[in-house]
Amino acid sequence: MHAPSMSVKGRGAARRAAHSPVVDAAARWGFTARGVIYLLIGVLALQVAFGNGGGRQADRGGALAEIAKQPMGAVLLWVLGAGLAGMALWRLSEALFGAAGPGGSEPGKRLLSAGRCVFYGFVAYSVLAFAAGERGSGSGSGDRDSQDITARALELPGGRWVVGIAGTGIAVAGLWIGVRAVLRKYRKHLKPGHMSPGARRLVDVTGVGGGAARGALFAAVGVFVVQAALAYEPDRAKGFDDTLRSFAGTPAGPWLLAAVAAGLALFGVFSFAMARWRRV
To answer: Quick one: residue 237, left, alpha or beta (phi over 0 = left, psi -120 to 50 = alpha)?
Structure first.
């Protein structure tokens, strides 16, 4: 006779656990880890833009390779991987129990959180695999992985449609990221009472510039995937590094690459700000 009340109490306890200080700390650790990686990708891309790349790859693998060279680099890699796993855990809690703020339990938002959980889970796995010595996930692997995955997908029945739809989805996601950044949609997740006017300006500069650059990068990746589907040539698919380098081949030349690279570095700083002032 007490089963319904026990069930309600159980769900309440699960929700309290999902919004506990542990999950809060995991989310903020995850934002910090994301910030480190994007900041390094931006710096590496800037070096490529001005001819000082020295063979470095401006992608996640390149950033991890740079970290590995530093004193205590192996420890730092484990810390970053654990932080990104914490980000995945936080997104999982949102998918299961709803996010903070109005409308956080809407099915659409919970589904979006589930997708982000899968994404950050994959990124965390790749970073932890690199830390464990699997250097196949290192510098340059993003471009190879994009082409390999595209090649396997094209071999499937209806492969062109599968790849084309996936590329379109990535491109649309990039536009969505960029537009939301320009519209400052991130503001609704902040704790304005804890922020000074200078902090709010910092968040707006890094949020708009960084989000627009990140969105442009994802959109361009999606366009290359669509081109690979249309031409039935998997080598046309590109990862972050090759996509960034393609910006230098536009009429704007290296300056467009430099602008996107600076934006990615700004997104790294924005992630640090989210670790400090985001409502979790």
So the answer is: beta
Give whole-number Cα distances, 185 to 24, 176, 194, 275, 276, in Å: 21, 11, 18, 17, 17
Residue with tokens 């099915």: 107
In terms of Cα–Cα distance, which of 182, 31, 8 is closest to 16?
Answer: 8
In whole angstroms, what is the distance from residue 34 CA to residue 83 CA?
A: 8
Which residues have a Cβ under 8 Å from the Cβ of 166 and sit 6 or more positions away? 153, 225
Please name the amino acid found at residue 13.
A
φ, ψ of residue 183 in degrees (nearest 5): -80, 0
Q: What predicted TM-score, i.e. pTM, was given to this entire model?
A: 0.87
| Lookup result for tokens 């994802």 | 218
Instruction: Say which residue the tokens 């810390």 belong to.
Output: 79
Q: Please write the tens of the pLDDT for every residue from 105-140.
A: 788 889 999 999 999 999 999 999 999 887 655 444
Provide DSSP, 210-228. HHHHHHHHHHHHHHHHHHH
Q: What is the C-alpha to C-alpha distance for residues 253 and 250, in angstroms, rounded to an integer? A: 5
The two three-digit tokens of residue 215, written as one number: 């969105």
Torsional class of 101: left (φ above 0), alpha (ψ -120 to 50), beta (otherwise): left
The C-alpha atoms of residue 249 and residue 143 are separated, in whole angstroms, by: 17
Tokens of 226: 């669509």
Handedness of CA 39, 40, 41, 42 (dihedral sign): positive
Distance separating alpha carbons of residues 110 and 92, to the nearest angstrom: 9
**Is the four-CA dihedral 216, 42, 57, 254 of positive or negative sign?**
positive
pLDDT tens column, 165-207: 999 999 999 999 999 999 999 999 898 889 999 999 999 999 9
For residue 58, is it left (φ>0), alpha (ψ between -120 and 50) or beta? beta
